[in-house]
Amino acid sequence: MEWEVTSLIAREQNRRAAEEQQRSVALDVAWKEWQLAQEARTAAFDVLVLEKQVVTARDADRQAMENLDAVTLFVDKHEKTLIDQSAAEASAQEAHVLVISSENELAHRRLALNRALGLPSSQVVMLRQCEGATDLKSAVADQGAFLGGLEERRLDLLALRRGYESQDAKLRAAILAQFPKLSIGVNGARDTSNVKTIGIGATLDLPLFDRNQGNIALERATRQQLFDEYAARVFAARADIANAIADIKATNAELAATTSTAAGLERMLRTLEASMKSGNIDILSYYEARSTLYQKRVDLIKLERELMDNWVALELACGQYLPMTSMESTQREDRQ
Question: pLDDT confidence of 165, banded at 50, 70, 90?
């Protein structure tokens, strides 16, 4: 009976490598679950925004048809030209296409939401409508708040660190394995006169050429590869945070400009409505202004959707859940 006791030298490092690898796998699974949750959250935001877009698009479609009917009536009275009628028809067709495309996109996003939630495609998920576009200027003012502690929050970065620790333990185990192998054995014998003998022997291998250098080089290269991958992932995460913040600020600026334009159109529409009732302008000018306002409202909804998608991208980049409620309260405080 013989035992190789050299394996006990690297036992602690092999145990540590296995434990760290187990933690790395668990963190990697948690990171994938986080990504799936954010995917479902994005789909939910898209459904909410597209529901509002469909309602607005239908109103714009109805308004475009009213405008076309009015232009057709004026053409029959020879007060408008066929060119005006063609323009009104093109506008009505464009509004109707927007309704169809919005409804189709909403159906696809509902299917994406059900798939992300693991629900049948036929099931309708009821969602609570958002109050409006979220102002994230104050929330993204300090980029350092998202960069601080990034390596401790992002689950994929933690998984890579655990993988690096596991590989480091494997390297240490390979280094320990280069020492000569020592085997200890116990031998028993008995002769014909029933004389029993017990002997203890030890065997020591002297590695003259192979000192496990190949395995050491392989484990060291693998550890360096994991370190390079970790450094690249950290750099990419920091860049993703900066890009998401820049996109949010740009969308906020565009949203503010479009909101101001829509408010101006609403004031102009009220003035035109009063003038139309008093007979100072024709109904076509009023319809055209209202059609432009509906288009701006659709643009606002699309910007709101883009803003929410950018916010989810920021959450993914920084590995942190950022609730919308705090941002909505910030919006109300800024507007008071």
Answer: very high
Residue among 58, 76, 78 nearest 66 (CA): 58
Measure CA of the first residue to CA of the last residue in the chain; give whole Å.
Answer: 86
Range of the domain at 311: 2-335
pLDDT at 252 (0 to 100)? 87
Short-list 45, 134, 130, CA closest to 326: 134
If one counts the domains in the chain, the total is 1
The predicted model scores a pTM of: 0.73
Q: Could you report the per-residue pLDDT of 60-109, keeping only the tens digit for each? A: 888 888 888 877 887 888 877 787 778 778 878 888 898 999 899 999 99
Give the mean pLDDT of 168-192. 74
CB 250 within 8 A of CB 285: no
Tell me the CATH number at 90. 1.20.1600.10
Say yes or no to pLDDT of 25 above 90.
yes
Residues 6+ apart with CB under 8 A from 27: 155, 156, 158, 159, 162
107 and 279 Cβ atoms separated by less than 8 Å: no
Which tokens is 4 given?
């190789």
